[in-house]
């Protein structure tokens, strides 16, 4: 099997992941790599429908465990239908959020417990942890300001949580970075976009070179 690389991108709201990912895809394709850029929750019709249910601002009564299970269900379908086939074709899969979002948002910030949320997600991913994860480090207030000044960006149910929740999300990520030291690569996302992109690109090239040795 010609196995590609699975790279995930994480961070608080408005950190710049989606913006950098678009630039990264263009750069990697220019270098001749086969790339799949996708996102969670979503990336395929079933998971995009689950995304609508989770993120609709109308669904204010959603129980935290229901929320965690829906993210895990969307993850499972997206992996089976899209991510695994692309990896089998040797693609570099760039995924905007993955399991660490569930661990930080549902496990830590919602208070369900990182270990508990990890258990349901291990059932969903069957051992397919990312090869590497980029964490875009930003003060949640700065990220939320970026989102509110972007008129094209809808504010979803999770964005609308209070500031305390968003600070907890960041704390949750700090826990994960301690837990999975070798996998995480931290990028200062408060810098200017060209610098954020350059730092990501340099680290990613290093990761790809090490894999090819
Ligand atoms: N380094 C940067 N400096 C200033 N603004 C930025 C930077 N990177 C991205 N932005 C802007 O911030 C906003 C949010 O960026 P983006 O959608 O890429 O973030 P995100 O991490 O994907 O957010 P979310 O996970 O909440 O969807 C956009 O308007 C984008 O143009
Ligand atoms: C995968 C995943 C996501 N979330 C949250 C994080 C964001 O608030 C939204 C997704 O919106 P984005 O604009 O695509 O970043 O969902 C979560 O709480 N748990 C997860 O597993």
CATH H-tier superfamily: P-loop containing nucleotide triphosphate hydrolases
Series of H and E elements:
EHEHHEHHEHHEH
Question: Which residue ranges are poorly predicted, with pLDDT under 50 across at least 5 consecutive positions?
Answer: none
Amino-to-carboxy terminus distance: 18 Å
- The gyration radius over C-alpha positions equals 16 Å
- Overall tally of structural domains: 1
- CATH A-level architecture: 3-Layer(aba) Sandwich
Strand order of the largest sheet: 2-3-1-4-5
CATH class annotation: Alpha Beta
Number of strands: 5
* Relative strand content: 5-15%
Shape verdict: globular
Mean pLDDT, nearest integer?
Answer: 96
The helix/strand class is alpha/beta
Helix content: 55-70%
CATH topology: Rossmann fold
Bound small molecules, by name, code or SMILES, are:
adenosine-5'-triphosphate, the ligand Cc1cn([C@H]2C[C@H](O)[C@@H](COP(=O)(O)O)O2)c(=O)[nH]c1=O
The largest β sheet comes out as: 5 strands, parallel
Count of separate DSSP helical elements: 8
Structural commentary:
- Its EC number is 2.7.4.9.
- Keywords: ATP-binding, Kinase, Nucleotide biosynthesis, Nucleotide-binding, Transferase.
- Phosphorylation of dTMP to form dTDP in both de novo and salvage pathways of dTTP synthesis.
- GO terms for molecular function: dTMP kinase activity.
- Belongs to the thymidylate kinase family.
- The protein is of the alpha/beta class.
- It has one domain (5-212): P-loop containing nucleotide triphosphate hydrolases (Rossmann fold, 3-Layer(aba) Sandwich), CATH 3.40.50.
- It contains eight helices and five strands, in the order E-H-E-H-H-E-H-H-E-H-H-E-H.
- It has helices spanning 17-30, 45-55, 64-88, 99-109, 114-125, 140-148, 163-179, 193-212; strands at residues 5-10, 35-39, 92-96, 132-137, 184-188.
- A five-stranded parallel β-sheet has the order 2-3-1-4-5, with helices on both faces.
- Helix 2 packs antiparallel against helix 3, helix 3 runs parallel beside helix 5 and helix 4 (99-109) runs antiparallel to helix 5.
- The radius of gyration is 16 Å and the shape is globular.
- The mean pLDDT is 96.
């Amino acid at each position: 099997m010609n196995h590609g690389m699975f790279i995930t991108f994480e961070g608080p709201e408005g950190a710049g992941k989606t913006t950098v990912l678009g630039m990264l895809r263009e750069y990697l394709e220019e270098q001749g790599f086969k790339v799949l850029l996708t996102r969670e929750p979503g990336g395929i019709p079933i998971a995009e429908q689950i995304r609508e249910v989770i993120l609709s601002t109308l669904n204010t009564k959603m129980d935290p465990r229901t929320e965690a299970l829906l993210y895990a269900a969307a993850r499972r379908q997206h992996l089976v239908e899209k991510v695994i086939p692309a990896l089998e074709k040797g693609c570099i899969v760039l995924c905007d959020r993955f399991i660490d979002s569930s661990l930080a948002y549902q496990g830590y910030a919602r208070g369900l417990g990182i270990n508990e949320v990890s258990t349901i997600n291990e059932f969903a991913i069957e051992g397919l942890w990312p090869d590497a994860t980029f964490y875009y480090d930003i003060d949640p207030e700065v990220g939320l300001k970026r989102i509110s000044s972007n008129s094209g960006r809808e504010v979803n149910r999770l964005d609308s949580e209070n500031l305390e929740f968003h600070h907890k999300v960041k704390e949750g990520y700090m826990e994960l970075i301690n837990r999975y030291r070798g996998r995480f690569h931290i990028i200062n996302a408060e810098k200017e976009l060209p610098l954020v992109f350059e730092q990501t690109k340099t680290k990613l090239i290093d990761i790809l070179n090490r894999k090819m040795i």
